[in-house]
Fold each of these.
Amino acid sequence: MASSATALAATTAAPRRAPSRSIAARASARRASSARASSSSSSSSSSIDDAAVAAAYDACAAATRASSATFYFATALMRPTQRERVRAIYAWCRALDEVVDGAETRSPADARRELDAIERRLRALFDDDDGGDGASSPPSSSGSSSSSPETIALADTIRATDGMSPEPFLDMIAGMRSDLPAAVPSSGAFYTLYCYDVAGTVGLMTLPVMGVAEGYGLDDAIPPGVELGIALQLVNVLRDVGEDAKRGRLYLPLDAVHAAGLTAEEILSGAVVNAVDGSVDARAEAHFARARVGIKMLPPAARLPVTAAGEIYGALLNKVRANGYDNITRRAYTTTGEKLRALPGLAARAWFGSRA
């Protein structure tokens, strides 16, 4: 895996458009078509029995818990149906991430072929939902296929949820492709677009599952949802600098690295303890602030878990600060007890924030 500053700064891929409200328009069209395709969807879903679907959702819950205790905790505050569907989406995203991580032990070309196979399966899921033939791809090199738990659960989620669109899923795949090899856009709009691809898209994927409050449409809630995803990604980046560096990867925006008087090589080699100053967490805070306006746009049942996700990740950000930005030798985290003690305050913020 290349680890030089040149490789890390490479941005050869042509820039793509940022997310826009047109996604909501496409989602509305999908809601209209879902009724027409309902008979085809129900007949195709019969090939997998209820027990297999339930087992797939259970596997997605286990994968979520193993991968992110914070996200698992936040989704535990959702209604059961919302919870299992959001965790199915998360597990699908994690499967993508594992393809990229696996590229460290095999060629990027192999990983790209696997991402291509995942994209074909994804398109088949949405074609199936629209009454298409639902043709599946063969198993990938990792063994993942149309019969993998995350694919079965995601297929059920797509069939059962009005307004889901393939665009954010495809955008995430595009973001993962840009991560082969570890080449992250260096600064500005390119870095923000990368964060949208790999994290902001999650807000668009899950929004139809959670729904919106009366008086709002999906297009109103899209911008805050994207902002929250980007904010969470920036916190993850700050928290995981040390772990990523051990794997020869750097996800910090290089303009912030250079502004701190550092080079990529210094961080990757462990020659420094403090990877950046407060510039990256300031960006995260700005995204959090823009995300909070969306709480009132969510239905009451979704406000607490979304508020919890933002606040717990905000607490992680505070711990990075408390560690003196030592994100090389120390990894910030929140304990289960800290999360539980925060619940009353989170509930209050979810309620009063919704009335702002």
Amino acid sequence: MVAHLAFRLDVPDARVGGIVTAGGAVEAYIQATAARLAADGCEVRTEDWHGTPVLVGYRADFRLRWMATKLHLLTVVAPAAAVTQGDLETFTNTAFDYAQAQKGQFRGLQSGVAVFPGLVGTHVDPAALAWAGRRQLVRFGSVARPVAVDVTAGAVGCFRGTAALGFVYSGHLRRKLDAYFPQAAADAPTARP
């Protein structure tokens, strides 16, 4: 069901003399994301995707103003030492497939799926940040808004705009992105390589 992921945290996760190392900052950001998801009422768990621990948060919301639909929101977050645009595209497609397999059986029938596939790393290519912020991806009855987090630079790239397809969910998705993925520097100590 889940394709092989080549994303591994190759940077040691440790504290050295009270200084948070690069791997420690990635882990701290992911743990803080898990806490934010739980505080928002999400079911939170960690899954093993081919040796990589992946954080998965899930919640469902129903609103009459969404034309009486239920939106299944999955947040899927993984560590990566370095993130390229290609890595983020691959992870986004894998998370998209996963979300549709988990909750997308009845999408389009008063039900939709949204997924926030996030890669958190110490070195994120500016092209990956730009690609994440450009637009949401759309499949039948579902959308994905990729997220790239660079804990070293304190940067978060994701689309927070209003899209033509799925526009009724845009405000909700923007609020959830703001809650789950604040700027890295504001939430976790800055990494020192």
Amino acid sequence: MGLRRITRALLAFACVLGSWHALRADDARLRWEGPACVESADGFRRDLSALLTAEERADLRARVEATEEGGRIRLVLSLELPRGGHGDRTLTAGSCALAAETAAVIVAMAAYPERTFAPPRADASAGPSPKADGGDAARVDAGSDADASPVAVQIDAGPAVTDTSRTFDLRVGILPTVQWGSLPKGALALALEVGVGFGRRWSFGVSGAFGPSQERAFGDGKGADLRLTPFAARGCFAPLLGGPFRLDGCLVTQLLWLHGSGFGFDVNHDQDLFAMAPGAAADFSLRPTRWFEWRATGELGVPLSRARFQVDGTPATNPEAVTLTVRTGAVFHF
């Protein structure tokens, strides 16, 4: 019953956080800041939603700072793309509406450079124009009014936006761990995980956990020190992505190494037992920055061997048919 309650609590926590994030996602990820054109924040998000799906917007962040200089609107775009791509762009435009529209196009192009985007308005057109003042210029028509003249949007040259979302990133995690089912009591350990993320959804990792032993007493000063050292390899896929939150499903193979050392006997013996335990896991992650992630993991394993330690015919361990491992801690991305 205890294991079921822990599993239900973890699932309920993930659902609550996911629902809360869905209500505030775009406002938190797509920030438009003044002092100029404050009223264009909703237009920027609306224009971007016309270019990208909700799932695509969930994997990028943009901060737009708008100021007015010489009767024109100057925007500084700070972009953070899926899987660590980032960069800055600066542009000027003749109106707040045009600035919001062009900013949305630039964010979409930076996130998905292999695609072609047009301004969301049906009567607008966009195309390249010659370089001016050492920058890259894009020309966007002001609108459909008969007397409206084209307004040039100047995009200043700057550091290229680096998009690593379609390659990989290295991850190193330090995760306090509790495992039930192999030893008489829950086994505490500290896990070190090294992994690689491929694209936006796939990842692979290996880990090892090391912790203190626990004592099993038999009376008359006799007993055994028992220690569990698990190693694991895992492959994961993220079916749910939502801004800083993600949920991964994983296939896991564990190698369980149990070491027993007797004490208080006329002759003390040491013994090692090994068992393979395939299983599955669910990872819930919060990634507030490009390099830091907080992760909670629930993992079920099925040991293929249930060998046990015995002392004078008395079992020192009684392995369960299913093991539960819970981890939570920090993961760093490089």
Amino acid sequence: LYGCADQRRCHDGRGRSTVMSKFFTTSTNITKQLDDDHSITFKKLSYGARQRLISKCSKVDPFTQEASIDFAMLSLETFKARMVSWDGPEFADFACTAENIEKLEQETAQAMLALMGEVSEELDDEEKKA
């Protein structure tokens, strides 16, 4: 069904060329500038990781059997799962941990989420072209 024509060439970080399938999420980290002095590094989630987060943030009413998702919690848990690191003078004394992500100022968190959203849209556009 899907052959080698559906694969892309990339580099494995050691200068070697390797074949990367467009059907699997790689562990490639993405770094974006938050401002002139600060950057964030994050990753794209795999299907399985995303489904586990949705399951974690879902509830089923035992009486009505209706399912509901806590979208605020899903957004927070997705943010924490995608973040890899941050860099810059304002982050110097704070490790990139789930606890510290929750302590971010609202404006900073929103700016980071916007960068992640831009990359998700870019990746989706690239996937559509492939």
